[in-house]
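Can't paste images in this forum, so I'm doing it all in text. The chain is below; anyone willing to post the predicted structure tokens underneath?
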Amino acid sequence: MKRKLNASFTVEMSVIAPLALFLIMGCILVIFYYHDRNILSAAAYETAVVGGTKAREKEEADAGELETLFRDRVRGKCILLAQARAGVTVSEEAVRVDVTASGAGMRMSLSRQAAVTDPEKEIRRIRRY
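Text version of the structure:
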């Protein structure tokens, strides 16, 4: 008794399998993108806070030193966007860190800012009342 096999399943799978793999790989890339964004955002904010603290303590908050601090924070992390660069702007009121990163056909730019605060003056002002 001979059985006839229908080849439609093979044809359907030859179309569906690459689409499923493409979808899975796309999800992995999106997860890496947001993972890298969180790491770079945290490093940028930490750099801005350290710069704000140095500026508050009347030390010179050097932009080059803060850029080096950012690179140290990012070094050794498992990130896909390996070409991350930071631009630091130090002013009287705030420290701003602008980050651009690229790699694997993706680009990202973000900015984090921390105010240069002087809590001692505020505490003394409140205590006077």
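The CA atoms of residues 23 and 51 lie 42 Å apart. The chain is about 55% helix and 20% strand.
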